[in-house]
Amino acid sequence: MALGKIPRFSPSFSSAELLTVMASLTRRGDERAVISQFEHEFACYIGTRHATMVPSARYGFHLILRGLGLKPGDEVIVPALTYWAIPAMAVAAGLKVVPVDIGPHTHVMDPAAFQAAITKDTRAVVPTHLFGTPCDMPRIMEIAQQKGIHVIEDTAQATGARVRGRRAGSFGHASYFTFGLTKNMTTLSGAMVTTDDDSLGEFLHAEMASASPAPVLRALKETMVGSAMMMATHPLIYPFTVHPMVVLGNRLGKDPIHERFGEEERRYDTIPTHYQRSRPRAVQAAVGLKQLTRIEKLNGARIANGRFLDEHLANVPGLGVPTYPPGTEPIYMSFVVHHQRRDALATALRTRGVDTTIGYMSNCAQHPLFPELRRDCPNTAMAMRELLHIPVHPNLTRKDLTHMVEAVRAACLEVRE
Ligand SMILES: Cc1ncc(COP(=O)(O)O)c(C=O)c1O
Asked: Which of 84, 132, 164, 193 is the most exposed place for a label (fewest CB within 10 A)?
């Protein structure tokens, strides 16, 4: 922290990854060998037999649905609080998407709501380990196995999290992860699918082998964006550049960071063909291999920060703090609090130098793009009205955390009704 200003996030892309990109781009050799090594090491890290690099988590999800042989009309259960692209991919495949509610403050699928939504047509469930918090996987697996339902874990926000000592992404039939620049682990862009199912693993490898590689220029552009993020969130640069922009944007009712990095939400009639031209490159795998050597340290810092916030924000009047399903070890991709006057709280925090965001999740049970999915999911509706992400990234110092806790307490006092 410098001058009391704390950015909402800080990328895990660092000078170590920048050097890796440079070294990878100057090295000639077999692209496939580096990709296979990353896939192998990632599978070992998660604890599965197979891992396949894919261009994005949503495309990985699409491939899993195809590989598992889901047919139009089959039902797939998802948490109502999720990223819009996941229901969009399932709808594009002709599936009937059934959203179910989350726990009141866990932000992840309520196993009882999953159980209650099962019908004779349910073929798959997508437990989503949102904000770095794993779902209650033993319970979800038990229910799914009794009914013969495929479990597809959404681990896009929880690489490295555990449930009873076992990594999220190793419980279900398959799991997808994503490694964009804002995630706890990055490969610039790109994603991964893991599975223990040999024939699904072979299908995924064959699909990716027949796709054409993404242009190398794209990796270079992403490296520039990653380096710019690294600089912009540096404690000596952030207070004079991004912070004033965010404060000004807030006065104008805008969020400049969200506008720069957010993605337009849409329905897919068919699966966009550009995914077939975006096979990940060796440079991304090389960055991934570097990140695997640092992930435990990066996650460890998040976990320490998250636990500090859990402890010090537990009894602030008017503030709801996150809770975690039994036996889970979250990696605190985000630290999400609730407040009935969320927007006022965000403004009061920003004037105290703490940037926050409402994030980019949707209530897919009330989404205008998916009117056919409409259902009542009260905990999700409450989360959409009240949730606010406060910084928890690995670059926070103890001084930052103490400042944040004081700022949250003061801001809650200021905005109380
Ligand atoms: C929970 C969740 N699921 C899925 C995705 C989709 O990932 P991708 O953009 O790689 O398709 C995201 C994106 O951040 C996400 O947060």
From this structure: 164
